[in-house]
Design a protein that fits this description.
mainly alpha; 8 helices; Vanadium-containing Chloroperoxidase, domain 1
Length: about 260
């Protein structure tokens, strides 16, 4: 596959931008697990710290502050994740055009794939609401907490997703023969990078699977989230690199939110 000088210049800029946006996710996840994040979870003995609907807006604001400042805390011990994601994304970006043009632009399954991805996303959005409602009905604090954290993770991921879209301005695969050019002002608010469906699905799945970490829950949650990501490519809505970044950052945010705000054991 050949790239013009303009496309090559754009590709060279992308890994640097991706490093910044992916670093915060991996860093936040690693730091929250290791307890080194400045505002890591503390024993929630006061109502102010409890996972409740009332406290969620404040939690989201603190999440965003931690997420966007986490690149400043990147160091040798937590840089492996960001580096691997950046390298994988850079490789996919260089092959996006070839993969889409040779395998997916002429597929007859696009409509079915888009319907499937929309349906699965609806399930991931509904899951925290259902879990929360069941928790309230059965007075199950763990279920109630999981529902709230799942919703919080999706809001956090959506906020990050919208910022990245406004920065990347990438054309959809159905535009210009799937060249996937970045920084195109004609894109407006419909940037292909990253995949919103993937990011929301994986953040919801990660929050739920972190709270209920049994093998069946993990397999179901992440299996369905993978289905969303694959369907977005088959449906010609996104390039492989779009769904990789959306899935990766969504997963990191979901785990970060669940680990940061969960009740102390």
């Amino acid at each position: 596959m050949r790239y013009g000088e303009k496309n090559l210049a754009q590709v060279r800029w992308v890994p640097f931008a991706l490093f910044l946006v992916s670093a915060f996710g991996c860093c936040a996840c690693a730091q929250s697990a290791g307890g080194s994040l400045p505002d890591a979870p503390q024993p929630q003995n006061q109502s102010r710290d409890a996972v409740t609907v009332r406290n969620t807006p404040r939690f989201i604001l603190s999440d965003q502050a931690a997420i966007w400042t986490s690149p400043a805390r990147l160091n040798d011990s937590n840089a492996v994740g960001p580096v691997l994601l950046v390298l994988a994304t850079a490789v996919l970006i260089t092959t996006d055009h070839q993969v889409m043009s040779e395998h997916f632009l002429n597929t007859s399954r696009a409509h079915e794939a888009n319907t499937a991805s929309d349906g699965l996303l609806g399930g991931f959005v509904a899951a925290p609401v259902i879990i929360y409602s069941l928790g309230r009905i059965h007075e199950d604090d763990h279920a109630t907490e999981t529902g709230i954290l799942g919703g919080e993770a999706m809001v956090d991921s959506l906020a990050v997703d919208e910022v990245l879209k406004l920065v990347s301005l990438r054309e959809r695969p159905t535009v210009d023969g799937a060249r996937g050019k970045f920084f195109q002002t004609s894109v407006g608010f419909d940037s292909s990078f990253p995949s919103t469906h993937s990011m929301i699905a994986w953040s919801s799945a990660a929050a739920i699977a972190t709270e209920y970490n049994g093998p069946l829950t993990q397999l179901t949650a992440y299996g369905l989230a993978t289905g969303v990501s694959v369907a977005r490519v088959v449906g010609r809505q996104h390039f492989p690199s779009d769904v990789l970044v959306g899935s990766g950052i969504g997963w990191m945010i979901g785990r970060y939110v669940a680990r940061r705000h969960r009740r102390s054991d």
